[in-house]
Amino acid sequence: MAETKREIERKYESDDSGLPDLTGVAGVAAVLDKGVAELDATYYDTADERLAAASLTLRRRTGGSDAGWHLKFPVAPGVRDEIRAPLSDTLPRGLAGLVRSRVRDAELVPVVRLRSARDVRDLVDGEGRLLAEVSVDAVRADRLTGEGGSAQWSEIEVELADGGDPAFLDKVEKRLRKAGVRPSGSASKLARALAETAPKPKKGNGKGKGKGKGKGQRAKGESPGEGKPSVGLVTKPSAEPVTAGDHVLAYVRAQRDALVELDPAVRRDLPDSVHRMRVATRRMRSAFRSFAKVLDREVTDPLGEELKWLAGELGVDRDQEVLTERLTAALDELPRPLVTGPVRNRLRTWSRARSSGSRQRLIAVLDGRRYLALLDALDRLVADPPLLEAAAGRPAKVIARAVRKDFGQVAALVEEALGQPPGPERDLALHEARKKAKRTRYSAEAAAPALGGPADDLVRLMKSLQGLLGDHQDSVMTREALRDLAAQAHAAGESAFTYGLLHGREERRAELAEAALPEAWQTISATMEV
Fold first, then answer.
1. Residue 245 and residue 253: Cα distance in Å, rounded?
2. What distance in Å separates the CA atoms of residue 443 and residue 404, rounded to the nearest whole number?
3. Euclidean distance between CA atoms 395 and 300, whole angstroms
4. pLDDT in tens, the chain (530 residues)
């Protein structure tokens, strides 16, 4: 069984390789000598070091109090989440899943072995409570691949106790700096080991190099990025975006990166991770459709369909969860005398019946070939984008035109909806307008770095419109659920009064949203004409 520990620590180095006296640090009553621990860790990565490129650390360590497998995710500078699993000969399945979006089909191999003699001190307060653990590590690193070498160094590590105040580390650092100790130049032992044991580059004469194809050019029949080594790697643009294509690709790349980076969070069931991953799929798909003059639809349309599939899988239980929360909140607002019959039990039973138990299903999707093939295809897209002629144009012209087109479609749908009488057809028209407003918001987001204020204004306006139309659509879906619940209650001989009451309240909410729409749309239209 894996466990998670939030690790807050700082690393230092000293020419003296010793630990200064820390009894003078504010709040420290005693410094306890805990002895020396012998640690032996083997670090794993792909041959092209994809985990290291993402600042992820995967190791198998013996010795010390926490022997086992450790996988570390960066949270903030000096802060990491360490996922721990018991010691075993092979990588535990759960940890393998957490790195799959990076590793894909590549083999994880031992890359570095670190052996450390760790001299540990505990800093405790007047009541004997642990404030931080301070250690002096004598490290030997050996590269296990290629023609790498070895390295040795000593470092000081200060790790905050669980639940401690991070400000305490500032006090310790102040004392260390006064003693001539300085922050380490490496973010981790592994980063330093990889740098100091790397094989020296071989000198070449440059012969045998042929002329390559220009950016975005491909041979006929060749898929984007075919044969390139970028699969599984989150790449960064080499320069600031200039052309329309640069800006669109920067946005697409950011969404691809979000998918890869959110994958472990979804597997860990972290708050809001499924929603954020779903949004990334929608943003990328919207970009493909909005900027069809920039990226070739023959390549992006199939990817868009796969992104639509993934968004659907991510939303299998998300929509039901949101609907249940809305119904529960509405029920909580009712005075007790207005809740007749076993309404809450009925709601729980209904919600469970409509839930697919998708936790296991979702993990299976993320482990499946279709999803991994989608990630590979997105990597190839950003590595060798299918740029069209307009991609070389000025952002102020090409991107602005695409955003204006999206807004024009929103305007047409809103006007169409406002011209219809209340009812199912109007509900459907408002729903279509909401979806188009979301797409326009996303295209404006992509345009913001190039167009500045006007695009930022459109993002804000579309977000407000999306919220208003979203409230209306939520009411439509909630009323449908209430009719279903009322029918089930009636069939079971229960009172349907409360469901009817809630249905009436939802109708009123929809009426208020519809009543607010003309004025809101008038304001948006006037703003866009300025």
1. 12
2. 10
3. 20
4. 578 999 999 999 988 767 888 988 999 999 999 999 999 999 999 999 999 999 999 999 999 888 999 999 999 999 999 999 999 999 999 999 999 999 999 999 999 999 999 999 999 999 999 999 999 999 999 999 988 799 999 999 999 999 999 999 999 999 999 989 999 989 899 999 999 998 877 665 544 444 333 344 343 334 333 344 445 555 556 568 889 999 999 999 999 999 999 999 999 989 889 999 999 999 999 999 999 999 999 999 999 999 999 999 998 777 888 899 999 999 999 999 999 999 999 999 888 887 766 678 889 999 999 999 999 999 999 999 999 999 999 988 999 999 999 999 999 999 999 999 988 999 999 999 999 999 999 999 999 999 989 999 999 999 999 999 999 999 999 999 999 999 999 999 999 999 999 999 999 999 999 999 999 999 998 888 74
- CB-based burial label for 284 (10 Å; 0-12, 13-18, 19+): buried
Which among 460, 492, 170, 525 is positioned nearest to 349, based on CA atoms? 492
- Contact predicate 428/473, CB 8 Å: no
Beta carbons of 440 and 410 less than 8 angstroms apart: yes
What does pTM read for this prediction? 0.84
SS3 of 254, please? helix
Distance CA 505, CA 417 (A): 22
Cα separation, 494 vs 499, in Å, equals 11
Tokens of 369: 């070939």
DSSP assignment of 303-370 equals HHHHHHHHHHHHTTTHHHHHHHHHHHHHHHHS-GGG--SSHHHHHHHHHHHH---HHHHHHHHHHSHH
Q: Are 19 and 88 contacting, i.e. CB atoms less than 8 angstroms apart?
A: no
For 151-170, give the DSSP string.
Answer: EEEEEEEEEEPTT--THHHH
Q: What is the CA radius of gyration of the chain?
A: 29
Amino acid, single-letter form, for residue 2: A
Distant-in-sequence contacts of 366-373, Cβ < 8 A, 24+ apart: 366/97, 366/100, 366/101, 366/263, 366/266, 366/267, 367/97, 367/100, 370/306, 370/309, 371/310, 372/100, 372/104, 372/105
Distance of CA 41 to the CA centre of its chain: 29
Task: Return the H-helix or E-strand segment holding 276.
Answer: helix 273-290
d(CA 100, CA 264): 8
Measured CA to CA, the distance from residue 82 to residue 162 in angstroms comes to: 13
205: tokens are: 């004469």
Cα–chain center distance at 255: 9
Integer angstrom CA distances of residue 244 from 265, 295, 392, 457, 506: 32, 10, 6, 20, 44
If you write DSSP's letter for every residue of 424-445 in order, what string do you get? HHHHHHHHHHHHHHHHHHHHHH
- CA neighbor of 104 nearest in space, from 225, 230, 4, 226: 230
